């Protein structure tokens, strides 16, 4: 038996949600070492919308995987509130993902055998203080389509179900990996609009990883990655509205 | 094309788990087929050759005493090719090293030359000299079981006198392939029963049978009517105490051998059929999955210009790899098991040649059937490759479509968790696959349950027979019915505590057009040592008014309680009686009719007489009793209850151990192969979905439950089906087993099925664990970046 983990977010955001120091990741593939992440320092704060920009191979997905508890760094530390993720074992990481992280994937990853409402319910059933699944679907504007199976929904609708599923557990962080990557322009903008609104209305720290530079305008902060390093950090004084951006 | 071949091999290595499961099934099916068909050929071939070379008769008759002058009249009967009148007497033997007396069936040999029918296959030594009543040839099995060799001596009571016999040779005979006495025996007891041969002139003097015969072997000419000859023989022999002529079908040795050969035919079809059908089903679903996963590659290869037939052949080759390997393994295994079985058969059936030679025809047919199964199973999936358009093939497949079923409007559904809904929807989407899986697992359970039930049936027979029916310590059979004081002599023997004489009489029953040879056993109403007990252990009593029939006999006669049957006594004055069927008893062994002894005496117009007696003896004094019996001139044979029970158990253990072991292996292999392959296919189809769930925070156990829960439900659904199938198979097998000597009860006990279910569940869990190891190694990161 392992002791239950306590991740209690502080009342005042005096400290960051994530604090990463000297984070590195090296993949050993056969005899080749791939340095996916060079020593990186990073703080992410509650209520922020952060856009991580970079070309493929820049290390942005590696960073997201480590923040999301899917992977552990080769060296350095990443601390979520008080908890050191870099020292966590697999069971602890699973628990961390279950209780604190909402994921949105490029390919939606919905369960084809469950309806929209059931896909959300799947996660609310294992969460501590979840939203009502219908409320979450209402937040993404899908109240009318709750009983549809994924095969009966468009790509944009599927991604909105995925967002509803991610936020229904009231996560501490919403991690979005290329959320518009497999959507057309218009649909992509609708999805971004939903993400922006969710961040604004629920105050959930939202990290969007993308290679689409236009999306950077939506963030409070932009982190640009290249060759495994954060090469630049920018702040937007005013966040753009998805309706205003173009690519 | 050589590169494509390389791809076949690599793909095979990649799917090695699933292909190995298919290989195992093919190997099981082919090995059982090759083993049983080989045994069938071995037994049938051995039997035919043996019967031909040693001139086994076609029709047999036994009389009390008939003059040899009757021989030309028998030979003149239309359809009779050869007649061999001879002497056959049962005698008590005093075998060195054996406490209790053994029974010998003494058969006469011509003083010069070989017998024209039922010839001997001499194995050691020579034939007895003419007129020497101290020289005998022993049956090989009896000699071997008692450690007797040429030159050894044993005692025998010949017509009341104890004489010393010298073994001059050992031999086999086509009429003693299955060497049993018929005194309530089912299995050979080679220590206590065996055949002996002595010169005719010596036997004539010993039994005062000069110029007479009491046993007749007849050979039919080709195309002769057996029934016609039997009827003609009966007419000729009836004045001489004819017990009724009969054909090979009622010859006890032939009947048992035929039963065994028949059984190999049925098992050789049933078991391989089950395995090959399951193989085809698994090949179909496995290959279909591989083709779906390789859609892009298939599109690519088509785009390169590889022709659709070449591609279909490519996938067919992949499917046939486990089939070919499995058949080769199975054929080798089957031949090896056949060789081992031949040794086991040699203990039951006395054949001149024990050597087993593989039959290339059987192996060829086995391989052919397996290939046919493989092609049948794989063809659908392989052909689907040809229909795939290159452009469509390279695009991702359409997502699986799920729809709401009628179940989803029920209250139960609303109570179901999302996890439960996933399982139910997946099962109902792949309904045919789910049903096939349930059927396959159900069949495995059925086979196991049926086999275990055989043991229950045998236990029941042993319990009813040895605790309920046969309560004597020793059964004594007289040469001839003895009147008056026969039991007094037995009662006076030291160590004998109680004696109950019984009367048996051979009769011919007829009811309407049906006719059956049988035996009536006359019992005292208050008999204690031998009772009439039915399959449910209910004790019945003989009645003075009418005959109680064994259920098998009643069925053959189509007679019910209250009917009147015609009963011709096949001894003495051969009187015919019209008797009422007072009852029908559903007994397990036996199968004749019963009457109250006094009533039987009255009907036969005789005073108190006995055909034998049941004894209760003082256990401490058994040696004295046996010694006294060995010197009793009137005793033809004895049966010791303890030894019968021991023999019964030993034979069952030996012969069923093989059946038990192999069926256990086969049943487990079936369940494991089905569950493993179906789970692997589900894992491959749903790997991405399950990995997504892991990313969303479901732990390994929860994800495993979603995948394995599906299989668990299928296994659970298969259990009631399996129990029903098991009951049906048991019933089917028991119908086949039923013979004149015994019938088997259909016993279905909870503990038997608990054991069978345990085997199925353990096999399924083992397969589940094998797959679970893979589930734990799911790549969580890949699913975020790839689409199916």
**Class based on secondary structure composition and strand pairing of chain B:** alpha+beta
- The DSSP helix count of chain B reads 22
Proportion of residues in helical segments of chain B = 40-55%
Give me the secondary-structure category of chain A.
Answer: alpha/beta
Tell me about this structure.
The complex is a heterodimer of chains A (247) and B (788). Chain A has 247 residues and is α/β, with parallel strands linked by helices. Chain A has one domain (18-240): P-loop containing nucleotide triphosphate hydrolases (Rossmann fold, 3-Layer(aba) Sandwich), CATH 3.40.50.300. In chain A, 27% of the residues lie in helices and 27% in strands. A six-stranded mixed sheet of chain A has the order 6-7-8-3-9-10, with helices on both faces. In chain A, strands 2-1-4-5 form a four-stranded antiparallel sheet, with helices on one face. The longest helix of chain A is centred in the C-terminal third of the chain and has 18 residues, at 185-202. Chain A is globular, with a radius of gyration of 18 Å. The N and C termini of chain A lie far apart (51 Å). The model of chain A is unreliable at 1-11 (pLDDT under 50). In chain B, helix 2 runs antiparallel to helix 7. Chain B has a six-stranded mixed β-barrel. Chain B has a six-stranded mixed β-barrel with strand order 13-14-20-17-19-18. The longest helix of chain B has 55 residues, at 641-695. Chain B is α+β, with helices and mostly antiparallel strands. Chain B has 22 helices and 22 strands. In chain B, a hairpin with a 2-residue loop joins strand 7 (153-158) and strand 8. Chain B has four domains: 1-59 and 223-240 and 248-396, no CATH class; 88-208, no CATH class; 408-468 and 641-788, no CATH class; 496-617, Cathepsin D, subunit A, domain 1, CATH 2.40.70. The two termini of chain B are 28 Å apart. The chains are: A alpha/beta (247), B alpha+beta (788).
């Amino acid at each position: 038996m392992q002791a239950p983990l306590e991740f209690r977010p502080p009342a005042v955001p005096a400290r960051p949600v994530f604090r990463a120091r000297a984070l590195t990741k090296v993949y050993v593939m056969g005899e080749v070492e791939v340095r996916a992440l060079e020593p990186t320092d990073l703080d992410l704060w509650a209520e922020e919308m952060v856009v991580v920009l970079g070309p493929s191979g820049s290390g942005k997905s590696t960073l997201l995987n480590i923040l999301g508890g899917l992977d552990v760094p080769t060296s350095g530390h990443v601390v979520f509130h008080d908890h050191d993720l870099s020292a966590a074992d697999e069971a602890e990481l699973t628990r961390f993902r279950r209780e604190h992280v909402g994921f949105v994937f490029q390919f939606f990853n919905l369960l084809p055998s469950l309806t929209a409402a059931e896909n959300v319910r799947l996660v609310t059933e294992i969460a501590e203080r979840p939203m009502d699944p219908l409320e979450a679907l209402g937040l993404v504007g899908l109240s009318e389509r709750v009983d549809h199976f994924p095969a009966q929904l468009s790509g944009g609708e599927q991604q909105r179900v995925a967002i509803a599923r991610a936020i229904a557990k009231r996560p501490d962080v919403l991690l979005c990996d290329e959320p518009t990557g497999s959507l057309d322009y218009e649909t992509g903008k609708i999805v971004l609009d939903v993400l922006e609104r969710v961040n604004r209305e629920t105050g959930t720290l939202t990290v969007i990883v993308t290679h689409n530079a236009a999306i950077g305008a939506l963030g409070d902060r932009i982190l640009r990655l290249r060759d495994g390093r954060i090469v630049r950090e920018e702040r937007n004084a005013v966040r753009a509205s998805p309706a205003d951006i173009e690519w | 094309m050589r590169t494509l071949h390389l791809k076949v091999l690599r793909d095979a290595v990649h799917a090695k788990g699933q292909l190995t499961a298919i290989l195992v099934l093919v190997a099981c099916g082919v090995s059982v087929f090759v083993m049983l068909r080989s045994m069938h050929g071995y037994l049938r071939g051995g039997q035919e050759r043996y019967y031909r070379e040693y001139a086994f008769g076609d029709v047999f008759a036994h009389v009390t005493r008939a003059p040899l002058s009757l021989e030309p009249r028998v030979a003149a009967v239309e359809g009779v090719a050869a007649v061999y009148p001879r002497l056959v007497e049962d005698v008590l033997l005093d075998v060195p090293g054996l406490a209790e007396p053994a029974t010998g069936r003494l058969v006469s040999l011509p003083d010069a030359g070989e017998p024209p029918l039922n010839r001997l296959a001499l194995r050691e030594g020579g034939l007895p000299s003419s007129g020497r009543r101290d020289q005998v040839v022993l049956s090989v099995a009896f000699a071997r079981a008692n450690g007797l060799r040429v030159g050894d001596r044993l005692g025998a009571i010949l017509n009341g006198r104890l004489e010393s016999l010298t073994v001059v040779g050992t031999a086999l005979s086509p009429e003693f392939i299955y060497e049993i006495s018929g005194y309530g025996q089912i299995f050979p007891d080679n220590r206590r029963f065996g055949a002996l041969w002595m010169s005719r002139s010596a036997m004539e003097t010993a039994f005062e049978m000069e110029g007479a015969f009491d046993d007749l072997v007849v050979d039919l000419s080709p195309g002769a009517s057996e029934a016609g000859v039997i009827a003609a023989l009966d007419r000729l022999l009836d004045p001489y105490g004819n017990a009724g002529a009969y054909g090979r079908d009622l010859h006890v040795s032939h009947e048992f051998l035929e039963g065994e050969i028949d059984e190999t035919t049925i098992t050789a079809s049933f078991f391989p059929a089950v395995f090959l059908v399951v193989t085809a089903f698994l090949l179909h679903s496995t290959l279909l999955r591989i083709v779906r996963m390789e859609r892009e590659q298939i599109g690519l290869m088509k785009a390169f210009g590889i022709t659709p037939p070449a591609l279909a052949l490519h996938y067919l080759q992949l499917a046939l790899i486990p089939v070919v390997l499995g058949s080769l393994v199975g054929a080798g295994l089957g031949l090896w098991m056949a060789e081992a079985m031949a040794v086991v058969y040699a203990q039951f059936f006395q054949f001149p040649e024990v050597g087993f030679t593989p039959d290339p025809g059987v192996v060829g047919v086995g391989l052919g059937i397996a290939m046919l199964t493989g092609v049948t199973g794989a063809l659908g999936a392989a052909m689907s490759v040809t229909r795939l358009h290159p452009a469509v093939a390279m695009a991702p497949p359409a997502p699986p479509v799920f729809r709401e079923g009628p179940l989803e409007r029920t209250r139960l559904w609303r109570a179901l968790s999302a996890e439960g809904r996933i399982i139910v929807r997946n099962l109902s989407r792949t309904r045919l696959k789910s049903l096939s899986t349930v059927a396959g697992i159900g069949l495995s359970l059925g086979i196991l349950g049926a086999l275990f039930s055989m043991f229950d049936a045998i236990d029941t027979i042993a319990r009813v027979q040895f605790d309920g029916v046969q309560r004597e310590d020793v059964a004594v059979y007289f040469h001839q019915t003895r009147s008056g004081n026969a039991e007094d002599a037995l009662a006076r023997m030291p160590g004998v505590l109680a004696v109950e004489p019984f009367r048996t009489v051979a009769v011919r029953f007829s009811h309407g057009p049906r006719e059956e040879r049988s035996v009536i056993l006359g019992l005292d109403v208050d008999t204690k040592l031998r009772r009439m007990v039915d399959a449910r252990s209910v004790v019945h009593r003989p009645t003075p008014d009418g005959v109680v029939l064994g259920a098998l006999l009643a069925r053959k006669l189509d007679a019910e309680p209250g009917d009147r049957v015609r009963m011709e006594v096949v001894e003495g004055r051969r009187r015919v009686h019209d008797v009422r069927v007072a009852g029908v008893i559903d007994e397990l062994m036996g199968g004749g009719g019963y009457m109250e002894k006094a009533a039987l005496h009255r009907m036969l117009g005789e005073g108190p007489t006995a055909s034998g007696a049941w004894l209760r003896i003082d256990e401490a004094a058994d040696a004295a009793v046996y010694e006294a019996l060995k010197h009793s001139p009137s005793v033809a044979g004895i049966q010791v209850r303890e030894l019968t029970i021991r023999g019964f158990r030993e034979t069952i253990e030996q012969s069923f151990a093989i059946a038990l072991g192999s069926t256990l292996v086969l049943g487990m292999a079936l369940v494991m192969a089905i569950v493993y392959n179906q789970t692997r296919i589900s894992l491959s189809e749903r790997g991405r979905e399950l990995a997504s769930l892991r990313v969303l925070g479901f732990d390994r156990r929860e994800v495993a439950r979603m995948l394995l829960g599906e299989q668990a439900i299928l296994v659970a659904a298969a259990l009631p089906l399996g129990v029903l199938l098991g009951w049906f198979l048991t019933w089917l097998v028991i119908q086949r087993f039923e013979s004149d000597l015994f019938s088997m009860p259909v016993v279905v006990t909870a503990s038997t099925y608990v054991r069978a279910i345990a085997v199925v569940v353990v096999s399924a869990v083992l397969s589940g664990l094998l797959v679970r190891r893979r589930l734990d190694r799911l790549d969580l990161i890949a699913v975020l970046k790839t689409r199916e």
